[in-house]
Structure prediction request, 654 residues.
Amino acid sequence: MTTLSTPPGQPPAEDTAPEGQSPVEDTASRAAPLTLPVEDTASRAAPIALPPGVLTSERHRLTSLQGLAALSLDAMASVAYGPEAIVLVLAAAGAVGLGYTLPVTLAIAALLAVLVASYRQVIAAFPDGGGSYAVARAHLGRRTGLAAAASLVLDYVLNVAVSVTAGVAALTSAFPALYDDRLALCLGVLILVTAVNLRGIVDSAKAFIVPTAVFVGSILTLIVVGLFRDGPVSTEAAEGHASALGESATTVGALLLLKAFASGCSALTGVEAVANAVPSFRAPAAKRAQRTELALGALLGVMLIGLSVLIGRFHLQPVEGVTVLAQLADASLGHNAGFYVVQFATVVLLALAANTSFGGLPVLMSLLARDNYLPHVFRLKADREVHRHGVVALAAVAALLLLFSGGDTNTLVPLFAIGVFVGFTICQTGMVIHWRGERSPGWVRKALLNGLGAVLTGLATVVVTTMKFTEGAWLIVIALPALVLLFELVHRAYGRIDERIGLGRVPETPHRDRSLVIVPVSHLSRLTSEALTAAVSLGDEVRAVTVTHPGTEDRAAAHALRRDWERWNPGVELVELHSEHRTIGRPVSAYVRRVYQYHPGTRVTVLIPEVEPDRLWQRLLQNQRGAVLAHAVRRDTEAVICRLRFRLADRARR
Prediction:
């Protein structure tokens, strides 16, 4: 056994060798190269086999109906707060102001029609998904593409937080006793939606088809029944609540109408989600996505206009503590089972509207990771076609927003919709350039449509930002460039890594270096034997190292190991590393550095044997010695780290 106590900076005794010969080179013991028997398959025709997963991957993609359920919940649920947002602003002008509810809603519906038509063209032109980011990156430059991506990221994250808090707010309105627990309820709903999406987007879509159908059906029923009413059937829901109607006015200014329009534009968030997630659809993906986009726009437009017509028909006014949608259900259906169905469906859909973000943002993050603007881990997919790292990251940021807001919707709503309108404008502008460059049949008509969309959404962006700037929109103005800067920093980091590893250049010809395998040991066992067996199979020379500490007990253990090693005589040298401190990582890494210092041409591998228990809970019984060693060697040296797993379950079955 060799005892290494040489002061740092001096060559240890066992590292010395005659000139021209390395102490780690032993060519006599080098085994002959392994050869494998060659099978003659020339005379046998093998069947053509598709790669694993090709046949099953389509099963984990969306149909048009599933896409409507998975990606349109945000837009659908906006009918619960979009008309109310308009009414709350116009109510400041009294009954005269409320008379403009339908004209403002028609303006928003017209913008919705332009957006739906424009995004159908985006889907056809960019079937790989990405929406605004893909369009801007292709036609408006890298920086503009990053701005579009940043706007969508912010909107998706805010959508999760707003949808969850709005759903819980509707629940606590029906059950006031739960009001003090709204933050816990928000986090519980977030965990539930995240868990469903980790199962895969198709599973989440199937889970959300029923609540989506119930909500849409109840709203359409409410509208149809209400159109046949001459007046409200019931006003019980609003009785006893203070009116939020302002003093009566004879005129309504343009500024008030613009503010109402800006508030109502929150109903348009989520329209772009289908274009961002085109790869999630079954083949033909683009056609299915276009049908989903059209169905989304038609349903949303009908519900927004229908509810606004009923608001004017029943002369409803906002009251404190009761939503406008609840008043409409009461007036149209009566204070009966139908009323509660509408309320319950609204609560469920608002809570689940966050699924739009879980369907679109992970795909967008995957595209950003592909282009080196986000960590590459976001490109990984699980076996159910789900970007799990993107789902978890979205849930984590949304949870922080919920904690920041305390589960209060009003804290988050002023930040909503601004980011997505920035993306709308950038996307439509890029599509004009796309059609102009492509000049396919009908390109002028398509370019005019996207140009109109760019002008309208650009004006809407200015209006929404101006009207909501003091209500919290300034945070988005700061967050957008900050997020773009983060993308740039990640991109530069990957650029430096690519430069260091010579990515894209022809590397030098591979050659064989002398190799030394170091095996840290602390005792003799089957694990030690397995580790040395693996080590002699990997390297030209193997050295076992053990770390000893001062102290009577430690010296006795070191003496016992030395005695047992000499009796065992495995043909591998045991090196003893003295350490004044009770640590194992630093002495081993220091030894590796000395090997590199005096034998720079040596390839060093540190093979760390570890026990792999057959029960998950048994990992708590381990001392994590291997992890400590691996961290120290990785931090301080360039040695290759090999962690040998000794599986107890496999050994037990033998």
About this structure: Residues 2-56 have pLDDT under 50 and may be disordered. Residues 142-174 form the longest helix (33 residues). Strands lie at 2-4, 514-520, 541-548, 573-578, 602-612, 640-647. Residues 175 and 554 are 66 Å apart (CA to CA).
